[in-house]
Amino acid sequence: MGPLLAVGYKKALGLDDVPDLDHADSVAGLLPSFKTNLEAQAGDGSGPKFTAFKLTKALVRTVWWHIAVTALYALIYNLATYVGPYLIDSLVQYLNGDERYASKGKLLVVTFIVAKVFECLSQRHWFFRLQQAGIRARSALVSVVYQKGLSLSSTSRQSRTSGEMINIISVDADRVGLFSWYMHDLWLVPLQVGMALFILYSTLGVASLAALGATIVVMLANVPPMKMQEKFQQKLMDCKDVRMKATSEILRNMRILKLQGWEMKFLSKIIDLRTTETSWLKKYLYTSTAATFVFWGAPTFVAVVTFGACMLLGIPLESGKTKVSLDRIASFLCLEELPTD
Asked: Which residues form the ABC transmembrane type-1 domain (predicted)?
């Protein structure tokens, strides 16, 4: 983008100034590979010609390189992220003058800096490649759906409305593309929980079991909102299909509607359909809000349970364990002072 911005600073940009899209990111470069993988899955002779599983396998084979690279970046990022929490106690002991760490100060500082550099770089490349994989998956799906729509038979056109096809392209394909953000969660979440519990156990001992219990509770609390979200999303998509079908039919027959003076009658029908769709959208967003609340409240809940367990078990909470120094400040403020005279 640097050279493009430099040219734009000097003059108004023209189409010739904008670089072409990478061939691998364009539909022309992407679609042949995806169709080859899709046809290979469709022709394997097992079960129906196309299923969600076969479609998934075709998508994975098309963007497998991005999946492998983002998995590596995700692993580096998560390992680098846990370096700080793992070494924070050693750093505090060094700052407190512990002789065991007297010669390790510079090494600790360098380790923190290197870990942060790896964390930042891997995260940015991880996110970029995830977005690129999602865009490629979405483009491939939109292309094959569009081509399929052009070659449907008369019978198939009667069973699938134009509204459904529009929603498949504008909503469903987009959701599949957005899934790229979460495709590594299946193995990342256990890894993250495992590393966090390891660090907690090495620092807090038995109290880490309370953190494990709190984490399990948070995971279970996410299940009902997720199931409700899935149900409400299906209802919402069904309402979208009905509304798009009605809208398309009204637009196609607008001449008859105007001739008969039925505009307001059919407008009220569309408004009723939109009202039903809005009600399901509200329910979907409410459950989404509940899931988001659980997600963002989880760290605080786990911390409260963990440190509460430490207090009940009599485990000392030093600044290296919690990074909370209020007790040290309070004890300092309680020291004897000089007489005011």
From this structure: 68-313
Tell me which residue of 112, 90, 110, 109 sits closest to 101, measured CA to CA: 90
Determine if residue 134 is left, alpha or beta; phi over 0 gives left, psi from -120 to 50 gives alpha, anything else beta: alpha
CA distance linking residue 71 with residue 333, whole number of Å? 50
Cite the DSSP H helix spans in 168-316: 173-178, 185-204, 208-252, 254-260, 263-313
Return d(Cα 329, Cα 184) in angstroms, integer. Answer: 43
**How many of the other CB atoms lie within 10 Å of CB of 208?**
20
**Amino acid type, 318:** E
174 in Cβ contact with 141 (< 8 Å) = no
| Total-model pTM | 0.67
Single-letter residue type at 300? T
How many C-beta atoms surround the C-beta of residue 277 within 10 A? 19
Distance from C-alpha of 184 to C-alpha of 192, rounded to nearest angstrom: 12
- The residues, ordered by sequence, that sit 6+ positions from 183 with a Cβ below 8 Å of its Cβ are 67, 130
Question: Residues 57, 166: contact at Cβ < 8 Å?
Answer: no
Predicted pLDDT at 45: 60
Reported for 313-318, long-range contacts at CB under 8 A and 24+ positions apart, including other chains, are 313/206, 313/207, 315/204, 315/205, 315/206, 315/207, 318/89, 318/92
The SS3 of residue 157 is helix
Q: Which residue is associated with the tokens 């990478």?
A: 22
Vertex 185 angle, CA 182 and 187, to 5°: 150
pLDDT at 323 exceeding the cut of 50:
no
Hey, how many other C-beta atoms are within 10 angstroms of the C-beta on 192? 14
Residues 162, 247: Cα–Cα separation, whole Å: 10
